[in-house]
Amino acid sequence: MVEVRCSTILNAPLEDVWAILRDFNGHEYWHAAVVRSAIEDDAEGDHVGAVRNFQMVDGTRIREQLLALSDIETSFAYCILEAPVYLRNYVAHVRLRRVTDNNTCLWQWRASFDPLTAEKDRLKRFVAGDIIAAGFRAVRELLAGGSRVSSPLRFAAPVSVTSGMEATAIILTRYGGPEVLEARKILVGNP
Amino acid sequence: MAKVYASIIIPAPASTVWEIIRDFNALPKWTPFVTESRIEHNASSDKVGCIRNFRLKNGGRIRERLLALSDYEMSCTYSILESPMGVENYLATLRLIPVTEDDQTFAEWSAEFDAAPDREDALVEDIGRNVFAAGLSALKTQFSR
Predict the structure, then answer these.
(1) ipTM score
(2) Entry pTM
(3) How confident is the model at residue A86, as a pLDDT?
(4) SS3 for chain A, per residue?
(5) Contact yes or no for A101 and B104 at CB 8 A
(6) Do A102 and B9 touch (CB under 8 A)?
(7) Contact (CB<8Å) A8/B101
(8) Which of A40, A129, B49, B101 has the highest Cβ tally under 10 A?
């Protein structure tokens, strides 16, 4: 078994980061490597046992199951059920810890798996770089107020029409709570 | 039961910070509030079960027993045997976690204890600020880059 352990400091209160991370399906909105994600069987993103089924930028499809979620420890754990890459027995743990000194937080992310010997180094680099470090970067950008680089929020964009009636829409401008909602004039197609 | 928690980021590798923390007898070297310390019965300070007997700058004497020491987790857990603070079942852990992205250290200090209900809030405030936060700040200043 190999283990990859990574950690970083985010310049944001623990509550703000946890609001982003605790939704098991939320990676669709912040992780640059994830294109589309859905929870199977209409479960919620905080339903322990839920399975997220998502597509990576390169087209690969992965299914992962939420094994544990704790609002007390601000942590969750998940495993891979199906993936085209050889990440056998892949289990990952994510945990946030408060830095009381300056009201920021530590984000720990570790993963263990059983690779083929020949693939070991390549897969360790892949997990540490493409999954974990890229995730750190994406959430840091999100907290800084930017949106993810690779693609804008699909559900947020109103359908574009060239003629029709003017209406007011509530637009979700970026990932977040009610504070990121904006009322805007849009055109909607004639009935 | 009351809980106290404080944490800080120290600009140095965890292995370097751990060299100081793992010595259960080193409080006078890095905290601003301990004047002298010894390990009872001449035991080694990394012997689990050993007792440190130290004096505070304000004159108080405290005896604490080392209950767990892990070089792997970089953590140290101890209990208070005798103190002037009026606490019972006091159990504390000091732990370091490497911040891998920039080779710094996350240090956290936590405790649980029982005390008379009317003194609990004041003790949480006093230990949290004057012991844990002050101790961690002093530790950080040793590694200012």
Answers:
(1) 0.88
(2) 0.81
(3) 82
(4) CEEEEEEEEECCCHHHHHHHHCCCCCHHHHCCCEEEEEEHHHCCCCCCCCEEEEEECCCCEEEEEEEEEECCCCEEEEEEEECCCCCEEEEEEEEEEEECCCCEEEEEEEEEEECCHHHHHHHHHHHHHHHHHHHHHHHHHHHCCCCCCCCCCCCCCCCCCCCCEEEEEEEECCCCCHHHEEEEEEEECCC
(5) no
(6) yes
(7) yes
(8) B101
